[in-house]
Amino acid sequence: MAILNMHFRAFCHATEDEAKVAQAMKFASGAEEITREVTEGYHGNPIVILEVFIKEKRRSRDFFSRLEEDEIKEIIASLTKRMDEDCNLYLRLDKQEAYQGKLKMTTSDDAIAVRAKVESYPKKLETAMRSVTEFLESLVQSKKG
Fold first, then answer.
1. Which DSSP string do the residues of 5-71 spell out, in sequence order?
2. pLDDT tens, 50-78?
3. pLDDT for 107-131, tens place per residue?
4. Are 13 and 123 in contact (CB under 8 A)?
5. Edge-to-edge, what's the strand order for the sheet holding 35-40?
6. Which terminus of the chain, N or C, has less C-beta within 10 A?
């Protein structure tokens, strides 16, 4: 298994319905419990930060297996841009699509930010990239057959 844990985070602005953003987070992460932190923006506007942390490898695998084949292929193709030296894989999910029960990646800032810690021994970017590529390719193969 390539993913050790996952962190999901979404910002809920005053113009958004927090219950809908929470529902999108629950769908995306598969978690029922969401932590909530209230803060304020640069201009004093209220912002609620919703977060989920998943430690179970099975739940991480479930998340990636729910992505469409094209989405998984896009992650593989853009892996060098999505991973850092600490072996974290970064994705952005469309909040509106997640609210409607679909996992779709986006480049928008209005997103659910996902950080997945990739298992790598020794802890090296090249090893982590190889590990996550094998993991994602196995998911693509399982969707085909």
1. EEEEEEEEETTS-HHHHHHHHHHHH--S--EEEEEE-TTS-EEEEEEEEE--HHHHHHHHHTS-HHH
2. 999 999 988 999 999 999 999 999 999 99
3. 998 999 999 999 888 888 999 999 9
4. no
5. 35-40, 46-54, 3-13, 111-118, 88-94
6. C
Residue whose structure tokens are 């609620």 = 48
Residue 121 DSSP class: S
Q: How far apart are CA 12 and CA 120, in angstroms?
A: 33
Rounded to whole angstroms, how far apart are CA atoms 145 and 143?
Answer: 6
Residue type, 77: A
Residue 112 φ then ψ, to 5°? -95, 115
